[in-house]
Structures are given as C-alpha cells and as structure tokens.
Amino acid sequence: MAIFSKTDAPGQVSASDRSTAPPSTGSGAAAPTVIGPGARFVGEVSGDEDVVIQGRLEGNVTVSRRVTVASSGEVQGDLHGRAVVVGGRVVGEIRADERAELLASAAVQGNVHAPKIVIAEGAQLQGTVAMATPAEGAGKTNRAEEN
User: Fold this and answer.
1) Is the pLDDT of residue 79 over 70?
2) Where are the domains of the chain?
3) What is the pTM of this model?
C-alpha cells in the first residue's frame, strides 16, 4: 500500500488526506481502487471495495463500501456507497447508506442523502441535505414524484 507511506511524494496521499483514506482492516481486505492525482478517468466505477479519488473522474461511482474524494479529487457524477467522504470537488448527487462527510476543503454542488451527515466548518455545499434511511428516502421520493 504505497499510498499510505510516510512521505508525500507525487501520487501519494498527503498528510491531510490520510484521515479520509479507508482504514486498513488488517483482515486481508482488498486494497482500495485509487484514481491517482495525475489521472483523468471517464466512465462508471462500481464494485465491492473502497474507492479513493485523488484525480479527476467524469462518471458515477456505486460501491458497497467507502467512497473517498481526496482534497485533490474532482468528480462530475453521482457518488453512492456505504460511506462517502468528500475533501475535494463534487458536482453531482451524494448518497450514503450509513454516513456522508464533507471535510473543510469540500466543494459540493448537488444534494446529499444519508442517515448521518457531517459538514465541517469551511465546507461549501450548494444543494439540499436529506437525512433519512435509504428505505425512508425512497418512500419520500416516490410520494413527491406522484404529486
């Protein structure tokens, strides 16, 4: 896991982003999928592992684990995961099954949906916040669409 080394060489997570990177479970869990700071990726990302975005992504992310957008990361698309942590720029919807967190360096244009939401002082959010469990959120959306 070179991205978690002690030095902050190009392509590695900086000291300020280490707290947003997925923690190592020590149980042999797969390493996260990383879109590095110099990378630009266009397309959909999905899977059963953590995703860390340090570069630019144009497309949606849907994973069953954690999505992290580092302070250097930019996403144009929707993010969905068990937990979503944003330190960079996101233009799109954020949906978290358990928890969404916007760090002080975050700039989000889009709605945030999660049962637990943390917005740090200094974070920028242009959109709405909805705190509901996924089942409750789906029910509210359906009723709103019917009217």
Assistant:
1) yes
2) 14-20+28-146
3) 0.73
